[in-house]
Specification:
By secondary structure, this protein is mainly beta. The chain has one helix and eight strands.
Length: 107
């Protein structure tokens, strides 16, 4: 599904396939141009809904997060698998299986 907004890299990542969800798996929430690391903390019995908790970023280099740690007080997001097989949380893309952090310096 074509997108008319945001960072090209985030849109490519958003449209890539993710592995089946599992508790403890890394995830990345894809904003307009930023990326936020998270951990899968709950998977619904159907496997079509996951709960994510935002991770703490413990190292930065050139606007990219380099290391992450669990954050029990992190923001909580619920992501659902859409009819195209892509994960979304409140309009933002989500990819499962890896963590990434990026802060766009132009904002």
């Amino acid at each position: 599904m074509p997108k008319a907004y945001g960072n090209l890299i985030n849109r490519v990542i958003e449209d890539s396939a993710s592995p089946a969800p599992a508790v403890g798996m890394g995830a990345t929430i894809l904003w307009w141009s930023d990326r936020t690391p998270a951990t899968v903390t709950k998977v619904s019995p159907s496997g079509k809904t996951v709960t994510l908790t935002e991770d703490r970023i413990t190292g930065w280099e050139n606007h990219y997060g380099t290391s992450f740690a669990p954050n029990p007080n992190g923001r909580v997001f619920v992501a659902r698998k859409n009819r195209y097989g892509r994960w979304k949380t409140a309009g933002n893309g989500v990819t499962l299986g890896s963590r990434a952090a990026y802060r766009d310096p132009s904002f």
